[in-house]
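Intended use. Records such as the RecB family exonuclease entry shown here are meant for training and evaluating sequence-to-structure methods. They are not intended to support clinical decisions.
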Amino acid sequence: MLLKELSLNYPEIVKKCSLNADNLCRELEASLNQAYEDFPLMFPREFARIEKELLEEGSARARAKIPEIATNLLKGLEEFGKDSMLAALTPVKTEPIISSERLNLKGSPSKIVCFEGVNVPSIIKPGSCPLQGVWASDRMHAASLALLLEAESGKEVSFAFVEYVSFGLLRKVVIRSSDRREVLKTCRRVEKIKSGFMPEKTEEKFCTECTFSEHCVSNSSLLSKFF
């Protein structure tokens, strides 16, 4: 959560500081300190449940990531240019709720940014980052938000951004037809499950942890072929 708040301040940091590693590290640390102080005001319910030791540990871990974040931000600025990088980082809206009656789907991107004259979704991810591109689950998340934004704006959304905040890496994701197909397929699966039709059971490592496994269909059926 601290790294997410830090990332939302990247545009202001990039605008005001001279772009060298030392200056960027200082500005990032100052912004992280401010986010830490603002935490109780922004998230009073969550803050009340967090032990002080845990919060301090999280702050220390976030602070330790600053040199790597600064290095990757500088690489991104060199590669894409300051104006393009700022456009990809600067939110037009932050955490809006967007929905589609046709898809019976609702979602909230971390932010919507205007890149090359088009509003596109951007999602902030705090976990690990692949060497190239984005994780498959993040691609599906980005595709679903692109479909929702298309439904709201009536304009095609052909790409999205995934921001891996623990590393200061911004990845552009081109939304493929196969991504759209997978999102639609998943939506229809969920609708069938909500209507009482459980998909055919497949024994996987996750089954032992699933609280609904006893309700799965154990034998093949004609209906299961449509899932």
